[in-house]
Design a protein that fits this description.
The chain is mostly helical. It has 21 helices and no strands. The protein has helices at residues 9-50, 53-66, 76-84, 94-121, 126-154, 158-181, 187-208, 220-246, 250-258, 261-277, 279-293, 300-318, 322-331, 343-348, 350-366, 370-395, 398-420, 430-445, 450-467, 469-475, 478-482. The longest helix has 42 residues, at 9-50. The chain is globular.
């Protein structure tokens, strides 16, 4: 009698629940990021209007380095997510985690104190001393926020993580607006209000996550083992992520040490436009990783192609943001008109950068390729920084600086995906769709005329829809996400 394979109903049900939950959480994350985007519009488009370029430049230096004090936990947060991702709260070794959290907070506080003392000894310009002293003083509070938020991510409570992020940005934005309203437009009051907000949010975060702090704790030795294991597992991810975020921003470091503060302010403003566009992809990538952790390893490859297919359509839609950006600069932020000569190149970086955030980074973490991820990002960051430095020294042109960043970052992103080809299966042409999309955007935006851009954009959208009309129809059906690729 002929036998037929029996379908594993339980497995299919679990996969369906995982995907459905992941899509719901991703939708919540994107909705929250939409609110954060409104706050970002204020800091990126309104604040520069009321600050002088020099003071705005110093504020942007502070904001740039603020992203890198996440290293203060030495990979503890990423290691926590890797170790406990997909578990339930009641399954956590909570006594061990509480002691580890306390030890990590003590370590970050010691580093902050030592850093502040060192800054008083070094002979630094007054502006830099104020900026870096505030950054070191922020470290313990950033550590609290990161520890609690990483635990919420690990136990699949991303909603709390996203709400905490939104509250952080919203309160800070309100503080900036109050300062501007009363006429305090210097960088020192702006840095001060940002520090105060971080202290407030850290206290609120500790209260929301009191379960992870208060209660019975294990021995100090067990706590130290928790810190050592988590840092050992997460240090490469943390360093890799910091290097990945540095790569497209390497031009800012080059300008900080080789150009005037006004030129640095212009380039930083242009880069803030890129940050606005990739707000959603960053949020989706954070939520996507726990979903991957709950899937069987053999089921992960098929979702790469499916999600990238959706991503290509979404990112093409996001590129339309270039139009309001140009209009705002032309008619509102006229003092920043100089960025129109190269801002389209920086906007184009959102295509490979978004793919890194929403796909490549989560997959590298899910496949436990932490060291490879770190090494690849280290090489790419070094290459981009060297190329940017050489190009700017030879040309003294921010246009060529932006062009170099775009080219190298695009090639690096393609190289990452080709490396992942060992684990996933993609059509041969799939790797080049992104490159064609990026080059097409640069081509239609190069003239600087919005009419030409809009016509070219609509023609591209029409071609995209006609050529992929069948796959577009499938995306909105549940069967598309459950069937084999």
């Amino acid at each position: 009698m002929k036998s037929y394979p029996v379908r594993n109903e339980v497995k299919d049900l679990e996969e369906r629940i995982t995907i459905k939950s992941g899509i719901r959480k991703m939708g919540f994350a994107i909705g929250t990021q939409a609110l954060i985007l409104v706050c970002s519009l204020v800091t990126s488009l309104v604040v520069p209007k009321y600050m002088q370029k020099e003071t705005y430049g110093y504020w942007q230096i502070y904001y740039f380095y603020l992203n890198y004090i996440n290293f203060i936990t030495f990979g503890y947060n990423d290691g926590t997510v890797l170790k406990y991702g997909g578990k339930k709260r009641e399954d956590l070794p909570i006594e061990r985690i509480r002691r580890g959290n306390l030890l990590m907070l003590l370590c970050s506080t010691m580093v902050a104190v030592c850093g502040i003392i060192l800054l008083q000894i070094l002979e630094l310009p007054v502006e830099n001393r104020i900026i870096f002293t505030t950054l070191f003083a922020s470290m313990p509070f950033v550590s609290i926020f990161n520890i609690i938020s990483s635990l919420f991510l690990a136990i699949n409570q991303q909603e709390k993580y996203n709400v905490l992020n939104f509250v952080n940005r919203f309160v800070a934005t309100v503080g900036y607006c109050v300062l501007l309203f009363v006429g305090m437009q210097g960088y020192i009051p702006m840095i001060g209000i940002d520090y105060a907000v971080r202290v407030l949010i850290a206290v609120a975060c500790a209260a929301v996550g009191i379960y992870f702090w208060k209660g019975k704790k294990s021995s100090w030795r067990e706590g130290w083992n928790e810190v050592r294991e988590n840092c050992g597992g997460g240090i490469f991810i943390t360093m890799g992520a910091l290097l990945a975020s540095f790569a497209p921003l390497a031009g800012r470091v080059v300008l900080e040490h080789n150009a005037t503060i006004e030129e640095y302010a212009l380039f930083s403003f242009a880069m803030s436009v890129l940050s606005l566009i990739v707000t959603f992809t960053n949020a989706a990538g954070v939520v996507f990783f726990p979903m991957l952790k709950k899937l069987d390893a053999k089921d992960m490859p098929k979702y790469y192609g499916k999600i990238k297919n959706v991503y290509n359509y979404l990112i093409y839609g996001a590129l339309l943001c270039y139009v309001p950006v140009v209009l705002v600069i032309r008619f509102y932020l006229t003092e920043y008109m100089g960025v129109l000569g190269y801002v389209y190149l920086l906007v184009a970086i959102c295509i490979p950068l978004g793919k890194m955030q929403i796909l490549i980074t989560p997959y590298m973490k899910a496949y436990r390729l932490e060291k490879e991820y770190f090494i690849a990002n280290l090489i790419s960051a070094a290459v981009i920084w060297v190329c940017d430095s050489l190009v700017y020294r030879l040309t003294s042109s921010t246009l060529f600086l932006a062009l170099t960043t775009f080219i190298v970052y695009e090639l690096w992103s393609l190289g990452f995906e080709l490396y992942l080809k060992k684990k996933i299966t993609l059509d041969k042409m799939e790797h080049w769709k992104e490159l064609v999309l990026a080059l097409y955007f640069v081509l239609i935006a190069f003239s600087g005329r919005l009419t030409v851009f809009v016509i070219g954009y609509c023609c591209g959208a029409a071609v995209l829809i006609v050529r992929n009309r069948k796959s577009l129809q499938k995306i909105f059906r549940r069967k598309y996400w459950l069937e084999e690729r």
